[in-house]
């Protein structure tokens, strides 16, 4: 049987400082049209070299498969490319190179409030967001009470979501995505917005999905949750896949590499005079900063 997700040599390039093609709303299109001639004039002296220097590869040559029913974690430091990879899998953005094949109905929870209309109430957004995720009205009707109870926002269901806190947003968004009962569930670090009790409830719902042989891709810095929920994990570092194995082995690899990088880069003495970004017109200036514990020892060795 073919894997439910196939990722083959996927790379994603961004142009720093450039807006790219003007595929957006009218305001973005007009802004791009006015800015483009000025950008061309500013870049005329550099030409091709300026564009080349502004390119940034968020992902580079990523390949792995996910089998049906697997629970796979994607871990790595901030900026490693985790969220970019999930956006490509969710078809929010296209890869610059490579191909992605997804076989099955997918629900993605990537950013707080994605797919919500701020002027509509929580009740109305359940139907709107459920439709975006592929649910029929009869399916939403049947699951409405379960979604509302799981979200736990009670009387605020009749309030426009623009008045919701970020925590209320994520409670409602996760409740809808979880009750869609998809074949593939993709969850980014948005659960960190909720309180501890809600995070526990979300992790329980994800464990249920795993038990029902659903496929789950989970991005989190909560390594305890990764080890408890996920059979396998991959580690991304600066846009490259550097490790793939059991979640326990992947966590060990990640922690060892993070600690070695940190040990090389950290010092309890910071030379502020070496900074070139501080203006000389501001006086006096700190030249050197040293950090010590209450016992007079460096905080790390």
Task: Give structural notes.
The protein has helices spanning 26-43, 48-53, 82-89, 122-132, 137-151, 166-179, 196-211, 223-229, 247-265; strands spanning 5-15, 55-66, 71-75, 97-102, 106-109, 184-187, 215-219, 232-237, 240-246, 269-271, 288-290. The protein has 301 residues and is of the alpha/beta class. A 6-stranded mixed β-sheet has the order 5-6-7-3-8-9, with helices on both faces. Strands 2-1-4 form a 3-stranded antiparallel β-sheet. The chain has a two-stranded antiparallel ribbon with strand order 10-11. α7 links the parallel β6 (184-187) and β7. The longest helix is centred in the C-terminal third of the chain and has 19 residues, at 247-265. The chain is globular and about 65 Å long. The termini are far apart. 30% of the residues are buried. Residues 44-51 have low confidence and may be disordered.
Task: Explain briefly what this protein structure is.
This protein is α/β, with parallel strands linked by helices.
* Whole-number mean pLDDT: 79
Low-confidence stretches: 44-51
Number of strands: 11
Radius of gyration: 23 Å
Topology as H/E string?
Answer: EHHEEHEEHHHEHEHEEHEE
Please give the oligomerization state of what you see: single chain
Q: Largest sheet at a glance? A: 6 strands, mixed
Helix/sheet category: alpha/beta
Binned strand content: 15-25%
Tell me roughly what share of residues is in helical segments: 25-40%
Please count the helical segments. Answer: 9
Shape: globular
Strand order of the largest sheet: 5-6-7-3-8-9
CA-CA gap between termini: 52 Å
């Amino acid at each position: 049987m073919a894997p439910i997700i196939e990722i083959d040599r996927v790379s994603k390039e961004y142009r720093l400082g450039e807006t790219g093609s003007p595929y957006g709303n009218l305001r973005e299109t007009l802004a791009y049209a006015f800015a483009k001639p000025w950008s061309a004039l500013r870049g005329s002296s550099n030409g091709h070299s300026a564009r080349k220097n502004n390119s940034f590869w968020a992902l580079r040559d990523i390949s792995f498969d996910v089998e049906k029913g697997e629970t796979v974690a994607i871990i790595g430091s901030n900026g490693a490319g985790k969220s970019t990879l999930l956006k490509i899998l969710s078809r929010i953005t296209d890869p610059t190179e490579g191909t992605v094949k997804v076989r099955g109905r997918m629900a993605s929870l990537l950013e707080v409030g994605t797919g919500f209309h701020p002027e509509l109430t929580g009740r109305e957004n359940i139907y709107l967001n459920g439709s975006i995720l592929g649910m029929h009205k009869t399916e939403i009707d049947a699951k409405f009470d379960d979604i509302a109870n799981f979200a736990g926002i009670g009387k605020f269901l009749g309030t426009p979501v623009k008045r919701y806190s970020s925590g209320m947003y994520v409670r409602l968004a996760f409740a809808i995505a979880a009750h869609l009962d998809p074949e593939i569930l993709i969850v980014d670090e948005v659960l960190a917005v909720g309180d501890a009790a809600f995070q526990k409830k979300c992790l329980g719902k994800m464990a249920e999905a795993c038990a029902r042989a659903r496929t789950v891709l989970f991005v989190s810095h909560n390594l305890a949750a990764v080890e408890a929920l996920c059979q396998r994990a991959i580690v991304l570092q600066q846009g490259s896949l550097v490790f793939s194995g059991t979640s326990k082995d992947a966590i060990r690899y990640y922690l060892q590499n993070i600690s070695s990088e940190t040990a090389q880069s950290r010092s309890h003495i910071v030379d502020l005079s070496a900074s070139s970004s501080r203006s000389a017109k501001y006086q006096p200036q700190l030249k050197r900063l040293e950090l010590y514990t209450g016992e007079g020892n460096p905080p790390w060795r």
